[in-house]
Amino acid sequence: xxxxxxxxxxxxxxxxxxxxxxxxxxxxxxxxxxxxxxxxxxxxxxxxxxxxxxxxxxxxxxxxxxxxxxxxxxxxxxxxxxxxxxxxxxxxxxxxxxxxxxxxxxxxxxxxxxxxxxxxxxxxxxxxxxxxxxxxxxxxxxxxxxxxxxxxxxxxxxxxxxxxxxxxxxxxxxxxxxxxxxxxxxxxxxxxxxxxxxxxxxxxxxxxxxxxxxxxxxxxxxxxxxxxxxxxxxxxxxxxxxxxxxxxxxxxxxxxxxxxxxxxxxxxxxxxxxxxxxxxxxxxxxx
Length: 287
Hints:
The chain has helices at about 160-165, 175-190, 250-255, 255-260, 270-275, and strands at about 10-15, 45, 50, 55, 75-80, 85-95, 105-110, 120, 130-135, 140, 145, 150-155, 205-210, 225-230, 235, 280-285. The chain is of the alpha+beta class. A hairpin with a 5-residue loop joins strand 5 (about 75-80) and strand 6. It is elongated.
């Protein structure tokens, strides 16, 4: 069992970048002069905002900077509440898997203090993609997404927040979409009790679907119904994803108010779909 990993808070954007910085080859890594039109003040820290996953920066004349003007700029960030450090924007592209056209994928890199090289900060996802997003709001250690437009955090495609975005669960669309994205992140981590404790392990195959068919059930051989999910954790649990990480009895002991009478035979897809609190369901391979 594990708690949520590191948190990267984003505070502002520094537009000056040195074209002489050593860097590993990456899209946009040599485009340090692309942001020269944003401001005439070297090393000025500009306030930023996000709309969906779009980074919003305004120039001195009040106009919004285009995406290509931000390549090479640096974000002032804090990791897990630590001292300020810099992340560089290496590329910005539309997510080819997103039918809505609302999701942008960013490549962010940080500088190795020993070698001076800039390396991608996002681990590779199951498809080998190393990209991230900027999202408004904060995430607590219990896995709760707190609405707050004054706070911006970075999420990667390899993490639960990013995976749920790319499934089409877009938290900025409406209150219900916000709750659905939260339910999906609980499901990704097998956070049955909604306290931030994960009962899964990396690389476990699951299928995600929902009553509104944003995602449809995939009849993959060997996958069976596991659980139904809401923003505060599991609505009910047919069986645990990784039994050695926790049994049904373990879950009931951990969160009796949530799951007493809602595990095993007390949970099925039909029961879950009849519950209006169910926002996301999943299947997984029995072990």
